[in-house]
Amino acid sequence: MENKVKVCVENLNVHYGEKQALFDVCMDINQNEITALIGPSGCGKSTFLRCLNRMNDVIDICKVEGSIKIDGQNIYDKDIQVEKLRERVGMVFQKPNPFPKSIFENVAYGPRIHGLAKDKTELEEIVHTSLKKAAIFDEVKDRLDETGTSLSGGQQQRLCIARAISVNPDVILMDEPCSALDPIATAKIEALMEDLKKEYTIIIVTHSMQQAARVSKKTGFFHLGNLIEVNDTETIFSTPANDKTLDYVTGRFG
Amino acid sequence: MGLITFFLLVLFAITSFYLGYFRSNRVRVIEKQRPFSLDKYYGYYLAIWSVVPAVIILFAILIFDGFIVKNYVLSEFYSQGIDQSEISLLFTQIENTRNGIKLFNSEDEIIVNAVNKLNYIEGIFDITSIITVFSVSSLFLLYGYRKINLNFDARLIVEKFILIGFFLCSLIAILVTVGIIFSLLYETVRFFSQVPILDFLFGTNWSPQRAFVRDAADAADIENAFGAVPLFSGTFLIAFIAMCVSIPVGLLTAIYMSEYAKSSVRNTAKPIIEILAGIPTVVYGFFAVITIAPFIRSLGGSIGLDVSSESALAAGLVMGIMIIPFVSSLSDDVISSVPQSLREGSYAMGATKSETIKKVIIPAALPGIIGSFLLAVSRAIGETMIVVMAAGLVANLTANPLEASTTITTQIVVILIGDQEFDSPKTMSAFALGLTLFVMTLILNFIALRVVKKYTEKYE
């Protein structure tokens, strides 16, 4: 049985100045599922991801056309407040980027900005819950005052996940979240994603096809700014419709 | 002698270089094998052997030269049993006569004889020293030349000499610092033997001119004239006013330049701001005296305040403007170097730009920002010219920025201008002030380093 569609992308075109980065991308992303985006470097998958929470707004020369609807509402509408959008669509980056603050303050950052907690006890509860959901609470519960940067790489990345879910978003975008981590930390984060998908919709960009095969329900293959194919992960990795996809997933190029 | 020796040495070095170069070349041809190093390194190697010992000997000669010649010329006076101070007076007269300065006793036989003797002995000394230098270098050159063969690695030895050169250069800076400290210390200790250190550090009355009037001054009067507290308070007051201007303006400028300004704006505005640092401080002094001080005075007058024509406020304000670029430029660099990933992390949480700056960027850049503040403070404390011109010279113990005030540096200038007796406590107090200033800046730098280190541990 198919889950309900959470994100609906239609005719998305993205230009960086003269250069076009995405061509007419259309894609539906289901709720409470992990969707993986794969493809060779520079194929536009990160650009696509960053359109979903309008992170490309920061880049002056970037121009986005088309529509991206989350729960039926176009996020590029004029009356959409980008800060509110990003509260609903969290993001985890390729390199762990905890703020130069204590572990507690890192997670409390979002709730404080958006005024989610009425008092200190509530804030503490949010922080503790987020850390527990990110499966890092047991490792850091005795040292919440230490700086986030003092943690190991894998712990930092889970801290960033905790930070992302602290504002209780609907969608979590992950841009190669494991590429800077060792296999053990990667396994932990993949297990975490399994848990998180019960509550959130997760979209992950990855270079590792094994990872895509392991974690995702659906997979989209990007090549040179085009979304070549999107289907169930099993289909993509066994009997893809497109030859390019087959070449890529069998390791013949890319 | 100096110039000729120098040219000879250069010539000698060049010759040695080619000697080594061709020697190595020949070894290559004869042995039909590549030597360890390139030909030029054998050249450098010989040049070093020919020049370095020569320079060392020359320095030794330069140091002892005058001493030996003087003693030789004066030896006959010593044997006549003439008094020490008279002999040194005599020698001054001899030297003056030789340099063509006519004196009342220039025609005296003793003097004329001594001058001739001096000229003669110096001539001999020059020639012998040149001969010594070059024969010694030739010996070293020969030694080096004989060492050049196929298995000799000149490159490593040249490398070692370069290393020694670097080491000596860094040593110079350290030695000069130590020398300055000791010269300050010496005079300061002499000063404190006349004025008790506690009176200096905690006394509230600064009037060194009074101590100079010796007849009126009994011992107690001298002691009471050197209380440096008004100078300290003036220094801190003016530096404080300057920081009140430069920290907010400089920091906000830096934030605007690094986070908000378009690159075209930034590329034009930044150099213009940095011009502020290039304006001579005397010009700032004019500006303070001619423009700011009267403005403050009339402004104060219009609301019924009595403002002195020379005020700490005018000096502090202008000084604050002067050090804006120190704060803004450094902070700008530090803020720009905060990784983009932190900004993105914050935006992705739904933070606005100003929230990101306030909560993420500034804390991350804090060590560098504090460093820029402290650099600006030391600059403000050490600044002299603006204060001399705009804040007055009266040592006035007050916290009122509208009155005339003075600083440590200004008083040092005032004390040392003009002809001074170098053993009066007034003059020596300048050295004590200098040392105090030095210690203050040292403590400031120490704190700065500690603070920066502490925050770096926390935020890196």
Task: Describe it.
The complex is a heterodimer of chains A (254) and B (460). With 254 residues, chain A is α/β, with parallel strands linked by helices. Chain A has a domain of 171 residues: P-loop containing nucleotide triphosphate hydrolases (Rossmann fold). Helices cover 36% and strands 26% of the residues of chain A. Chain A contains ten helices and ten strands. By secondary structure, chain B is an all-alpha fold. Chain B folds into two domains: 151 residues, no CATH class; 234 residues, Orthogonal Bundle (MetI-like fold), CATH 1.10.3720.10. In chain B, helix 5 crosses helix 17 and helix 13 packs antiparallel against helix 14. Chain B is flat, with a radius of gyration of 32 Å. Chain B starts with a helix and ends with a helix. The interface between A and B is medium-sized, with 27 and 21 residues.
SSE succession of chain B: HHHHHHHHHHHHHHHHH
CATH H-level name of one domain in chain A... which superfamily?
P-loop containing nucleotide triphosphate hydrolases
CATH architecture label name of one domain in chain A: 3-Layer(aba) Sandwich
Bin the helical content of chain A: 25-40%
- Taking the alpha carbons of the first and last residues of chain B, their distance comes to 59 Å
Which superfamily, in CATH terms, is the homologous superfamily of the largest domain in chain B?
Answer: MetI-like
Count of separate DSSP helical elements of chain B: 17
From the alpha-carbon coordinates, what is the Rg of chain B to the nearest angstrom?
A: 32 Å
Contiguous uncertain segments of 5+ residues of chain B:
none
Got a strand count of chain B? 0
Q: What string, H for helix and E for strand, traces the elements of chain A in order? A: EEEHEEHEHHHHEHEHEEHH
CATH class of the largest domain in chain B: Mainly Alpha
What's the multimeric state?
heterodimer
